[in-house]
Design a protein that fits this description.
This protein has about 300 residues and is of the alpha+beta class. It contains 5 helices and 12 strands. Strand 7 and strand 8 form a beta hairpin.
Length: about 300
Amino acid sequence: MAALITSDFEIPNSIAMGIFEKAQKGSTLARLSGARPQKFGKQTAWVLTAPPKAEIVAEAGQKSPTPASYAAKTINPIKLQVTMRFSQEVKWADEDVQIGVLQDLAANAGIALGRALDLVGIHKINPLTGTVSNLVKEGLIDTTQSATLTDAKYDQAIEAAAGIIISSGYSPTGIAMDPTLSFGLSTMRDANGRKIYPEIGFGQELSNFEGMTAAVSDTISAKNEMSVASNLIGIVGQFDAFRWGVQRSIGAHLIEYGDPDGLGDLQRLNQLAIRAEIVYGIGIMSKDAFCKVVKGE
């Protein structure tokens, strides 16, 4: 992987501050489920699989034992990192001309690690390669429950997914949407040509839909990362069944010496590197608490 050098961008005599870039949205799972404190390493969570039931007792009657059962679920640590090389001259130019390249690299490292929560927790992929990683044991993509979008009836597909969740004994508290799904909702019209959901604009900042908390990101389809295209455009679910937390976080920092990524000694090559790392703990308490919304073939 080539390092960033000054010839990769023009050094202007005067500049408008800031770097323009294509918008990247972060994790929907972080917005829908919320982090829980975790210690480092594998964690065990307990799931109530058979809740206790009350019993009617006659006057002076005997009381029966109340059965209840629990199952253990493992929350696995997943370590992720971003390492970006650039030449020493880039740092000099950034200091002298105030381009903001290093700040931008650090900020985008954080975005990449945030997006990784979805890419791993939903698709089980290594974000760098776009292929499924054998280090990830489970993802929301594994749920067998799905609703298929047909004839551009986006709301009916979501309604069907919510119905499946309810039939499975869970409550649909949230929906994670690909931008194509939220935009599809925003363009739906009635028989008179009027928008059915005018309040959502173009759907890209949607935060609530039909009483469910909503979050929109292209991490749902993972079209910018997956090596094989996915037909997933949404996930409806009881999102507290997705458990995650940050076990360790190492913010973006400058590396000046050594060979941090196998591309050769930094000093010999007149290069520097920025690295950021995070360890997520990820576990799914029940895959039946989630239903996929998929595009029809």
